[in-house]
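Repro case for the chain-ordering regression, as requested:
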Amino acid sequence: MRVRFAPSPTGQLHVGNARTALFNWLLARGHAGTFILRIEDTDAERSTKASEESILEDLRWLGLEWDEGPDVGGGCGPYRQSERLHLYTSYANELLGAGYAYYCFCSPQKLEADRKQDLAAGRPPKYHGTCRSVGPDEARRRIDAGERAVVRFRVPEHVDITFHDLVRGDVTFNTDNIGDFVLIRSDGRPQYNFAVVIDDALMEVTHVIRGEDHISNTPKQVLVYRALAFSPPRFAHLALVMGPDHTPLSKRHGATSVAEFRDRGYLPEALTNYLALIGWSPRSDAANPGSNEELLPIDELARRFALEDVGHSAGVFDPEKLSWMNRHYMKTLPPARVAAEASRFFVARGFIRKMTDASAAYLESILPMAAGSVDRLEEIPERLAFLFEFDADAAATHADISAIVEEPGAREVIAALPAAITGPMLDRESFRAMAARVREKTGQKGKSLFHPIRAALTGEAGGPELDLAVPAIDRGAALPLAAGVARIRSSAERAKAFAAAVSRHE
RNA sequence: GUCCCCAUCGUCCAGAGGCCCAGGACGUGGCCCUUUCAAGGCCAAAACACGGGUUCGAAUCCCGUUGGGGACGCCA
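-- result from build under test --
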């Protein structure tokens, strides 16, 4: 089995296309097949090297490694259409010679006028066949005289073209609705429907899995396969991904590109898992009696994936469910993995100055207390800001904190704190022991004990469990400067500074 | 306009004629847990687009209607 993903490098990788890539990848990986990446850059005006690079980067980030492609090579290269122009020319000449194609000299203006006329008359707008009768000799003469021409495919009339779609079954189009389409443009570059056939055939692609927007191109491509005596691949057309208003997912709906999701702190594990579930669900059978499973890592998805189980209708992209999945993976993935993906957000925020083994280890140790309570990695540094930023005076005058200070008994707790902290609290037990000392001294317990402690030690009114937060503070405070972590003030220092600030602002 | 595709809770899916007065998940509401915010646990509300057939029996098969999407380019 050989499948391919063939993006055109005209922008960032869209989640809809990422899903198409994913389905191809899952099928290949589940069947010991080959996943090919091909760059469809025949649109010279819109294609850019930068977007090609970003698409490759996004696919790699998602974990969709390819076996053959522009950067890794392979036996059927080159893998950029712009480097395969000679092939298209050669096959176009073959079709021209055999009468399957002809030169067309119609001007864009005439074509546009014909189109309007068809539309107005309620006919399918298609090429009128004006140049069908121009013979090879005349065509040669006009080209030599400098006229610009395209090569068109001669579509037979009144013919039903049926192809079997692996997700939809047999699909039939009548050629009366298909105009003579362009094979080669006047500048010599191939048109999509031609290049895709040549490439898929030469690259020995066995399964073409693509968006449903291509289903009506398929009969044209089948025509070309037949004319060239290539055997067509198996086709599978995937229903499109929509926005909440059932219009195609676009910028208006928020983030749509893989890069945006990465920048906002979604894990690739969450994105691939979520995307796989739009239009597909694992089959329940004797081997998988549970069914209804949704949290499946990518390898498991590959093991379970089957085109027969792909749905027929378009699905709405639901950011809420993606976020839920992201939370799940933030909590369940190995901390080192989450830390690797989250570190850039800490660096951006200035909390980590330099990535070192020590800063990575510290990050890994503090992440779990925040990972379960936010939707995205990007939100974690803010959630843990209390570690790196502590301003006793600012805290003491903050409305939420003063409210806590005013609670009965709170001042006693705050005053008792400095003496109760006898040294760094590096684990849960030492924090609890300290809290017990304060309880004994002040008689406060429960909320009236812990609220003031939190205020004094973190400068905030809410946050992660103190059991975890306080040891994280003191472990951070013990870090040498060379670790690359922004300076963290110890709980002892904080307790003193906060008590002083409170009496100062009385 | 013409052609093609599609149609189960707000959303994503399960359901391949009786197991379905329709099941799971996200979201929503409530309760519990709790030193905060979360998380977690439990419970609840919530759908077979409509109309005809076929059949002893239809969410499931057929036809139509309606609705949605796609395509009809020297874009891909």
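Ordering looks correct now. Chain A is about 45% helix and 10% strand.
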